[in-house]
Recover the amino acids of this structure.
């Protein structure tokens, strides 16, 4: 079974989904997948058919301070939901379900 990634971005300063956010998946510094969040702040199939292993998820959020948020994640087999919560004052992520 291969790995897959989905995501969503929430602007916690407004309590609303962040639409139009560019998100990339990198391996060894090269972009292997990417997309832009929809009106609900989601990318349902950001990356599919990935081999397990280290990947970097890069978000370009709508924040005056956080211009680029990069997360190094270890992907196992199966699906991984990796959201970003962002505001002008902070950001956080977690492994969703």
């Amino acid at each position: 079974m291969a790995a897959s990634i989905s995501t969503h971005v929430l602007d916690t300063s407004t309590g609303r989904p962040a639409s139009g956010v560019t998100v990339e998946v990198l391996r060894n510094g090269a972009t292997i997948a990417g997309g832009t969040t929809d009106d609900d702040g989601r990318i349902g199939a950001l990356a599919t058919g990935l081999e397990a292993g280290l990947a970097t998820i890069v978000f370009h959020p709508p924040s005056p301070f956080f211009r680029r948020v990069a997360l190094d994640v270890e992907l196992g087999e199966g699906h991984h939901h990796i959201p970003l919560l962002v505001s002008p004052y902070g950001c956080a992520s977690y492994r969703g379900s």
